UniProtKB/TrEMBL annotation:
The keyword Transmembrane helix applies. Its main location: membrane. Residues 25-213 form the ABC transmembrane type-1 domain. Gene3D superfamilies: MetI-like. Belongs to the binding-protein-dependent transport system permease family. HisMQ subfamily. Keywords: Amino-acid transport, Cell membrane, Membrane, Transmembrane, Transmembrane helix, Transport. It is a multi-pass membrane protein. Part of the binding-protein-dependent transport system for glutamine; probably responsible for the translocation of the substrate across the membrane. PANTHER family: GLUTAMINE TRANSPORT SYSTEM PERMEASE PROTEIN GLNP, MEMBRANE COMPONENT OF AMINO ACID ABC TRANSPORTER. It comes from Devosia enhydra. The chain crosses the membrane at residues 25-50, 57-82, 94-113, 194-213. InterPro entries: AA_ABC_transptr_permease_3TM, ArtM/GltK/GlnP/TcyL/YhdX-like, MetI-like, MetI-like_sf. This is Polar amino acid transport system permease protein.
Amino acid sequence: MDQIISSYFNLSVLRQALPYLQNGLILTLWLSISIVPLAMIAGLVIAMLFDLRQKWLNALLVVYIDLFRAFPPLVLIIFIFFGLPFLGIRFSEFVSFVLAATLNGAAYFGEIFRAGIASIPRGQYEAAVASGLTPLQAMIHVVLPQAIRNVLAPLTGNIIELVKATSLASVVAMPELLRSARIAQGNTYNATPLIAAAVIYLILLWPAVRLASRLERRAIARR
């Protein structure tokens, strides 16, 4: 038992690792608050463009969604950061990761928002337009509030997945939480920093996981 505590729950090692974990957590939070809003906005735009019901446009959107949902995020990050420079296009590590995660996340958010919009009877949109609202106003003020409420559970779940995906930033040598914990582990030859990182992730994401579960149950109850 003492060996387990010394190897995985060592308070002395944890104190040494705290600066690394703190810096990693800050970067993880910065990545999260950058990626999630951008991906949600892009996904919402995709869903609203779908609602225009233009065949050529919908075909392009389907290609985008299928491509970036099928493309592994890790490969996409590597392509943007290491591959695009061969074409003369260079981004910083931060921008490369945010761009890759946003492109991937927007594809999922687009499908979620599209399902929400499709769940609202078309007659509500048409009635709003007939009452004098512009198509955009009808979408924003009448359709979207109801649509978003109908898909809150999958939206929350996708946000959780995006936050967890920030651990992939280590591929471009960004010291997010997991990479910082691994650096601390390498310096101390002890697994305690990794356990601490896991606990931090749990504290960050567990409330959102419980919220998603509650929203799913509520959505099922309304059916």
